[in-house]
Amino acid sequence: MQFGVMDHLDLSGDGSVHEHYENRLKLLELYDRGGFRGYHVTEHHCTPLGGGASPSVFLAAAAQRTQRLRLGTLVYALPTHHPIRLAEEIGMIDQMSNGRVDLGFGRGSVPMELAYFGLDPSKARNLHEEALECVLQGLATGRIDFSGTYFKIKDAPIFQRPAQTPHPPIWYGVHSLESAERAAHRAYHIVCNEPASDSRAYIDMFKSTWRRRNGDAPLPVIGLARSVFVATTDAEALRVARRAHLKFNASFRYLHNRHGVVPRLSGREATFDEMIASGRATAGTPRTVARSLESDMRTAGADYCVMRLAFGDMSFAEMEHSVKLFISEAAPLLNAD
Description:
This protein has helices at 17-33, 55-65, 83-96, 111-116, 124-141, 177-185, 196-214, 234-252, 254-259, 272-278, 286-300, 316-334; strands spanning 2-7, 38-41, 70-73, 76-77, 101-106, 143-147, 152-157, 170-174, 189-192, 222-230, 281-284, 304-308. It is α/β, with parallel strands linked by helices. The strands form 2 sheets. The protein has an 8-stranded parallel β-barrel with strand order 1-2-3-5-8-9-10-12, surrounded by 8 helices.
């Protein structure tokens, strides 16, 4: 089993913003030394959830603080980027990290964020598709030549070519049978964020579609996302996770509350206990956490556990202790087979 991290970099704590970023970079050094496969930062705007508002900036810093950890996005919100600039940024980061970039692209999950950019959320899907075609063309060929509804780019050269060819691996968030099938057709790595039984249906669709198209070729990486906190006792882990999730959720729902909108996908659970009940979180001793994650991964049929290990108002000491316990005690239990 492989391990990774999904991080909103949410600005929910009490320290300075400088301390916030420095502490996260220290955690990345821990992930790197601890054998984690990857780190995936999200992108949000005009909200405390948006500590990673410019993923490229943070990943460029992360590339200098790590040696083996793969660095990526879940996701770049493509409608907020011009394809030329984004292709150039991705090429730069992939070279600076010596070919360790993973890419996730999306249309932006919060319509209010797109509206602040003067974008029509109803057009986000088509805008995303055009931008994605441009970016991948630029990375793979060194030029973008495209004429569409939203972008008209005439033979623009891209000199910042990525180290990985034709481009870094692409990840896709799967939350339906249709999206699972689409990801398999495009040979994307995937991450599911739903309860294990629901994720199993999507992952089975992904695997069956892949095998129809590719036979016995190795499957892409199949991830399952969970919020996780580890402590020396179950009671202490739950105490910290419950407190921190309330802050995280306030950040997550900031724009929804401001605009009177109910979250559609993530962010539905108000408390950490509700997260546990929904099957999307666990907290406890290393053994408790390992048992929960092993069950979920086996049920879902996933091979890559993507964890939110730092969220809300956790202090650096709390986050660091949790990560060290996971590396030294929980991970060996999960890899005992």
